[in-house]
Amino acid sequence: xxxxxxxxxxxxxxxxxxxxxxxxxxxxxxxxxxxxxxxxxxxxxxxxxxxxxxxxxxxxxxxxxxx
Length: 67
Description:
- There is one protein chain.
- This protein is α+β, with helices and mostly antiparallel strands.
- It has helices at 24-36, 45-65, and strands spanning 8-12, 19-23.
- Helix content is 51%, strand content 15%.
- Strands 1-2 form a two-stranded antiparallel ribbon.
- It starts with 7 loop residues before the first strand and ends with a helix.
- The relative contact order is 0.10.
- The mean pLDDT is 85.
């Protein structure tokens, strides 16, 4: 990560108006832990997003043809 390694982030705590500081790496790790709580093991968020986008595109195409 080079120089970005020491980059500090500011964030608000939960239900807390006080700001907290953390390194970029810690912020990334915290975000990953939060996401892991809501994603089933083995799931690929990228694959799910691609599938949803393809379905939306198909539905939009069907809606266009139905006009």
